[in-house]
Amino acid sequence: MTAGAGEAHETAILTIDLDALAANYHRLRELAGTAECAAVVKADAYGIGMAQAAPVLWRAGCRTFFVATLTEAKALRALLPDAVIYVFSGLLPGTAEIYRAHDLRPVLNSLEEIKEWAEYGRSVGAKLPCAVHIDSGMNRLGLSADEVDAVSATRDLWPALTLSLVMSHLACADDPDHPKSGTQRKAFDRLRALLPQAIASLANSAGILLGADYAYDMVRPGIALYGGHPRRQGPNPFRPVVHLAGRILQVRNVAAGETVGYGATRSFKRPARIATVASGYADGVLRALSAGDDADGLVVSIAGHAAPVIGRVSMDLITIDVTAVPEEHSRRGAFVELIGPNVTAQEFAARAGTIDYEVLTSLGRRALRRYIGG
Ligand SMILES: *Cc1c(COP(=O)(O)O)cnc(C)c1O
Questions:
Q1: pTM of the model
Q2: Longest CA pairwise span in the chain (Å)
Q3: Given pLDDT bands bounded at 50, 70 and 90, which one contains residue 3?
Q4: Ligand 1 atom closest to 230 (CA)
């Protein structure tokens, strides 16, 4: 990677490949078979930028979108005037009017929310669309089995609203052998039969990979769109979308016995050549990627050569061991791949003891953002 025109002063560049995003959407649509493939664009499209991602997904054929909050939904409505937009967080007291004003659909999580939505619909004389979330075993959001029973017995609720979607969420879909997915699917089938007929949706990205039994009428992928690895094992069927590169600011030689960085946590057993790279935890290089004397950290890539982080990750900088990297590639100004084809977001996450979801949503706002394709 090299700096483009006007980028000579940039210390870190975050490249977001919108063609890869579109390709991942098409791949998911294939995997979804006859089910509609929606897109989850919460948390600023998992950190890559909803303003850029949403129009690309729309042009790729996506018509239904999910966000977490009403604020995200309003921003998305401004981008996509004709999309169907659902909001996972549901109906906070007194927000029904905002939903209607922006043509948004709440994912209702309790009997109380359903009643409030129905009452609001009656008050404005409209059968407003909404989703109902059934909790099939995750115990996080949605109606419990008891509540579904109560709702199904409350006959006068349904004529006051339009149930456009019934959904649930899988807890363990990233593990294809986990018995919980099957249990949840059975609970979903039993409980949704108690509600009026509506489009059904169960699968997130990992759920889509569980096969046709999990696709129902609509799938809701998030992480796979952005190049994450839903299963965390085996080859990732999706294309990387995010590339993070930082530049070498300085190269130095250290003698055996010297230490590097805050806390002097790594000492050198032999002489080494080290490079200081302009990226740190403010750029999303998590501090947990530090390497001390008794722990390894992130391994970055320079022109295809592996280079381990040594010492602590600080706010703006990391230090890497470039003893084995040819000098032509490890000189001042050169780019180092922190996330990309050689250092996957998945591997980056694993070395920090987390998951690629958190890596993507933790990307800082300081690096130059460069959108390509789309
Ligand atoms: C975030 C979210 C998704 C998307 O999940 P991925 O694992 O990123 O595909 C789908 N459904 C619900 C309810 C979610 O909260």
A1: 0.96
A2: 79
A3: low
A4: 7
Q: Are residues 41 and 119 in the same domain?
A: yes
CB within 8 A of 7, min separation 6: which ones? 13, 368
42 included as an active-site residue:
yes
Residue 10 within a domain: no
Q: Which amino acid is at 100?
A: R
Pair 39, 158 in one domain: yes
**Is the Cβ atom of 222 under 6 angstroms away from ligand 1?**
yes
The predicted-structure confidence for 23-63, as pLDDT tens digits, reads as follows 999 999 999 999 999 999 999 999 999 999 999 999 999 99
Closest ligand 1 atom to the C-alpha of 205? 9
Same structural domain, 302 and 153: no
- Residue 97 gets which letter from DSSP? H
Residues 155 and 287 in one domain: no
Q: Residue 264's domain spans which residues? A: 242-372
Has 262 been annotated as catalytic?
yes
Pairing mode, if any, of strands 259-260 and 128-133? Answer: unpaired
Angle CA 86–59–373, to nearest 5: 120
Atom of ligand 1 nearest to the CA of 169: 13
* Pocket mutation for ligand 1, best pick of 88, 181, 208 (most atoms within 8 Å of C-beta): 88
Q: Single out the residue in 170, 194, 226 at which a domain terminates.
A: 226
pLDDT in tens, 329-373: 999 999 999 999 999 999 999 999 999 999 999 998 899 999 999
Ligand 1 pocket, residue 168 CB under 6 Å: no
